[in-house]
Amino acid sequence: MSVPPADDPRALRDALLGQLAGGARGVIATLAAEAPLYAVGGAVRDVILGRPVADIDLVSERDAIDLAQHALPETHLTTHTRFRTASLRIDGRRIDLATARSETYERPAALPRVAPAPIGDDLRRRDFAVNAVALRLSGDAALLDPIDGIADIHARRIRVLHDRSFIDDPTRIFRAHRYAARLGFTIDPHTRELLRQALPHIAALSAARVRRELELVIAEMTGAAALASLHEDGVLAAVHPVLAWDAPRSAALTVPPRWQVPWQPFGFALLSAGSSADEAESIDARLHLRRADAEAVRGIAALRQSAHMLARRDAKPSGVVVLLDRYPPASVAALAATAADGVVREIAHRYLAEWRHVKPQLSGRDLQEMGVPEGPRVQQGLQLIRAARLDGWARDRDDERVLVARFVKSIRDAGAMTGELRLHSNGH
Ligand code: ATP
Fold first, then answer.
1. Atom of ligand 1 nearest to the CA of 128
2. Based on C-alpha coordinates, what's the Rg of the chain?
3. Is 345 in the pocket of ligand 1 (CB under 6 A)?
4. 57 in ligand 1 pocket by Cβ < 6 Å?
């Protein structure tokens, strides 16, 4: 992708619109014909960097909901009346239209009071200078850069707009590291100092807001690098003292994924891999995790207790499977990445890569046709032949049939024996 000259607003506008399909371009043209319209934040920053643009944030000094409803009467809009925003999806992209606003923070870490304001004020409420740049899309193209954000984009630097920024909104602490990792930028030294000073204010953020920030970090392609620097700056410990990150975790949370396990639960299990069962509970109490994430966090804590059972090179695969099938795969993957004992790591890895996928060839119905009675015996029989496959006793369908025939015979023999016992105890 070619980089348009950053001092040529028209070239930037053409480059931005050139990345969009016809539907999204049409929506923007319709809005821009109706009222002065600006692209702001990430889209402008990314087009200056020559990076592909994902979602688009638009700002208008007219009320965004009125404008969108009036200009796009046929389009499905999602509106937020508190912030006066309207958003829509088109061509696989999200377009957000916001009313230009100012924000005032009455308390640290609380949501701001908002009021309609000129575009210049809207840029001054933003998180970092690199995001405080607007490109006018209606009439003559123009760049608005009141805080020298373009210079920061060229210098590849993340800088807050004022010294209280992280105190007003501590979620910006996470955002700073997320952007730095994603864009390959560095956090400006003064900003980094302010970030460290604001760490105590993370405690005032609600569970949902901190959890959301961690979810966003984990979801990024460069999430591992962001987590490493969040750890280094003491941010993870400020969320909960047990949360940590290191090189083995970074190596595990890479794209493409090494193990087929759900990504977000895996990220949270890695973050909490050093925790005890009680600490896992208190992590969940702090973050109100989504259910699968909470289970993965509990799972890795419980697995740490039983890891010693896996520290044997001659462990039978069937035994390993009985133990590890009880835990979410994301927890086992976190164990495979972080266990201190190399044998445990290797066994957990083999479980994830091979053993958990081993299934018998015969089905429950096959077993019933061979004489296994309906009920829990069918599950037992399937487990038996799965264990035999895992440990190498059964290689194909025929081997499995031999085992099932023996299983049926043992059920019948046991049945006959209890029948005889019953006859005896009845006094016959
Ligand atoms: P991108 O900037 O690439 O879109 P993103 O998807 O993380 O990354 P959003 O969360 O959609 O960005 O935010 C869009 C814009 O809104 C940002 O560019 C920033 O200017 C502003 N913004 C978002 N969150 C905050 C915040 N907590 N404080 C101040 N400004 C914010």
1. 20
2. 29
3. no
4. yes
Cα angle at 331 between 326 and 336, to 5 degrees? 110
Is residue 425 predicted with pLDDT exceeding 70? Answer: no
pLDDT value of residue 2: 67
End-to-end alpha carbon distance in the chain: 92
Q: 73-82 pLDDT, tens per residue?
A: 999 999 999 8
Among 353, 346, 360, 356, smallest CA distance to 314 is for 346
Beta carbons of 337 and 251 less than 8 angstroms apart: yes
Ligand 1 and 42: CB distance under 6 A = yes
With tokens 């800088």, the residue in question is 159
pLDDT-based confidence at 428, cuts 50/70/90? very low
**This model's pTM is above 0.85:** yes
Q: Is the CB of 213 under 6 A from ligand 1?
A: no
Check if 172 has its Cβ closer than 6 Å to any atom of ligand 1.
Answer: yes
Mutation to probe ligand 1, out of 45, 57, 144, 209 (largest number of atoms < 8 A from CB): 57
Q: Is the CB of 96 under 6 A from ligand 1?
A: no
275: CA distance to ligand 1 center in Å? Answer: 32
